[in-house]
Write a structure and sequence with these properties.
The structure is a single chain. This protein is mostly helical and 440 residues long. The chain has a single domain, classed as Orthogonal Bundle (Proton glutamate symport protein), CATH 1.10.3860. The longest helix has 33 residues.
Amino acid sequence: MALRWATLRKNLTFQVLTAIGLGILLGAFFPRAGAAMKPVGETFINLIKMVIVPIIFLTVVLGIGSIGNLKKVGRVGGKALLYFEIITTIALVIGIVVANLVKPGAGVNTAAVATATVGKGAAAPYADQAAEMDWVAFFTHIVPANVFEAFAKGDILQVLFFSVLFGLALTKLGAYGEPILRSFERFSKVLFALLGMVMRLAPLGAFGGMAFTVGRYGVATLLPLAQLMAVVYTTMFVFIFVVLNGVARLFGFSLWRYLGFIREEILIVLGTSSSESVLPRMIDKMERFGCSRSVSSLVIPTGYSFNLDGTTIYLAIATIFLAQAFGIDLSLGQQLTIIGILMVTSKGAAAVTGGGFIVLASTLAATKVIPVEGLALLLGVDRFMSEARAITNLIGNGVATVVVAKSEGEFDEAKYRRALAGENEPTETVDELMSEKLNG
């Protein structure tokens, strides 16, 4: 019994679950103390961000270097982008349809809810930032004017763009570039060892994030917009277990087994409300699940900007919700226009400062039908829905990686079977995962 308890205490899943539970209790019974835990969660996220950029750079470069074929790199990237566009469009349509059928915004007292939850004028900063956004400039911004600045600011899209070009250049050098690749391989192992040290603090980060959310906003904040939350969560549940499950069946793997394999990552995202907190681990996890390293290192980072299924569903439902709340009857043409705008703006949700809220504000500003000030309605409950968005994004990117890997013949069925049997997955501690990575 004592041995079992000692093993359980070292299990990351158990640690994070316990931390989330304690965070909820602290925020519910001692709101001020819970709200004061914000720096704890933010510090953990910052520690992860500290290693995200160099890990993305090295894994993408090493992934392209291991392919060694420029045509294949283009083919993998093209398949990934095509899949992302198809799936996010399906997510958008589902969100729009559900919002029209359920009508979560009908009968909402807009003035009372906005004042009760966050106060007047709270949405103004987001509206101001959205007004300054230029989506043509956003796409041209993908090309960094200064690559060192891109690394310093942690601009994932710019780093990804430079990494792909750098990897392609190394591939063209052939044998001359191999020493650089070997050095990058060693450097990558050092960073994964560093990540192992950081991940030991994952329970603390989950505790701080959950305590702050519950303590700052409180359960009472949820009541006026409970129907909206229920619609968002239910739609994402349906998307995962109907759409993504259908994709998994089509490509011959088990969604349930996959979810079990990444359960630790799901729990960390639940506690921190950020899918970035597990980005490096997901690259490694998908390789253990059977996807080739080259595919994982390309698809996962790209998906964090172009395959935001959860964010897309939320943006679609939130837009229709606000129209209903303000008594605005959107025509079919207006809704199709919204879908078209969201297909573009949702791609930038992870890269824009302020995230989905600014993207939503820019969409409302572009339609010029729904008041941008209506964002105040969502501020109070947005944090409680961010977990669902982040988890759906996480799951969707992993599924995309398997799909691309299988379509390229880059999926190792033997690894997959070992993963299902638990042989590829560390069940004791994070340190064991990273030490195995370090020892190759």
